[in-house]
Structure formats: C-alpha cells, structure tokens
Design goal:
Beta Polymerase, domain 2, alpha+beta, two-stranded antiparallel sheet, 5-stranded mixed beta sheet, disordered N terminus, 7 strands
Length: 203
C-alpha cells in the first residue's frame, strides 16, 4: 500500500481548490481502470503517494478505498472522528438547504447514505444527496435553476466539472427525463455524491 509523503498547503486560491477537486476525480477514475501494479505505482507517485512498483497488488474495491483515503488525507482537510465528520455534514446540509430556499430552487432535495440513516461512524463518511429535477417549460426558468447548481461553490461545495458538468442538467430540465450524477467536495474535505433524477411530475 502507498505511504504519505508530505502534506500540502490548504490555503489555496478559489481556482486552485477547484483544480484540486478535479484532480482527485481524475485520479479516482484512472485508479479504477489501472491494470497492473506498475501503473498504479506511477499514478500514486504523481499524486504524492509512494508505492513499490514491484508490489503484487490486486486492484479491488477494498484496495482502491485504502489508496483513496490516503489521497484524501494528503490533499484535503480530514476529520479525526466520525463525530467530527457528522458535525461537518450537519453544517453543510444546513448551508445547502438554506441556499436552495433563498435562491428559490424548484428542485427537491433528499439526504441519503449513512447520514440519512443516522449512522455516520467514519471520519471518511461522504454526503449522499438526491435531487428531484423538475420539467421546466420556460427557458428563463431552466437557466435560473441551472445557475443555482452552478452557484454551489458559494456555500463551499465544489463540483468536479471534468467528471459531469452542471450544464449537462439542462436537457433534463427541459424534458423532465434523465438521470445524472454530480460529484464534488466541500472545502473542508467532505466528499459529496449527488444523484439527480428528472421527473415530469415535478413542477
């Protein structure tokens, strides 16, 4: 398994934070498709993690989870306990719901995952969000709803645009059909996975 080299400075500019989030999801995608130990070792080396290229590894979900946890610990602020992580998630949910309300969002939000079931026990627990996206007939209404998702960074939630651009939600808002995922990270290190389902019955 890789070992950490040295932490980075988290006092980055806004643009750099977005780039850091996008690099994480690029790393995650490339790790998932890596075929051999040498490729994984090169990938880890480029991310600041050291790994023996001769180590016999099997690229299983459990193996990748260990590497990703070390990557996150190196490049993002991490909680020291499940209790601290739950407090962070509490804060971000409050920020998100207030933001959606203040902006007049038409989409509906549900909270899932370990937080939704009241079982946040890990300092690495992520935040699972489910959005119900309405069908909006007006181009102005669609543009306004899209701007709300584009503005999530105002509440310290950075979407990885290189994985699934927020703009890809526009056809779903127009047709009331479609399923998408938005991936991102809060600036204090909580990974956010959002499932977006469009429905004609939502107005």
């Amino acid at each position: 398994m890789p070992t950490e080299k040295s932490p980075i400075d988290h006092g980055e500019a806004e643009e750099a934070i977005s780039e850091t989030v996008e690099r994480f999801y690029q790393f995650k995608t490339r790790l998932r498709t890596a075929k051999d130990g040498a490729t994984i070792a090169d990938l880890c080396e480029g991310a600041g993690l050291a790994m023996d290229p001769n180590e016999d590894v099997k690229n299983t979900a459990l193996f990748r989870k260990g590497i990703l946890e070390q990557y996150l610990a190196l490049h993002f602020p991490r909680s020291v306990s499940g209790v601290e992580q739950e407090k962070k998630i509490d804060y971000h949910i409050e920020q998100l719901t207030d933001y959606l309300r203040q902006e007049g969002a038409r989409s509906i939000l549900w909270i899932g995952g370990s937080y939704g079931t009241g079982r946040v026990r890990s300092p690495q627990s992520d935040l699972d969000l489910f959005f119900g996206l309405p069908k909006l007939l007006s181009a102005d209404a669609r543009a306004a709803e899209l701007r709300i998702f584009q503005g999530l960074e105002k509440i310290d939630l950075v979407i990885a645009q290189n994985i699934a651009p927020v703009e890809d939600l526009l056809p779903a808002l127009e047709t009331g059909r479609g399923l998408a995922r938005l991936s991102g990270m809060t600036k204090d290190g909580v990974e956010v996975v959002s499932t977006v389902l469009a429905s004609k019955i939502l107005k």
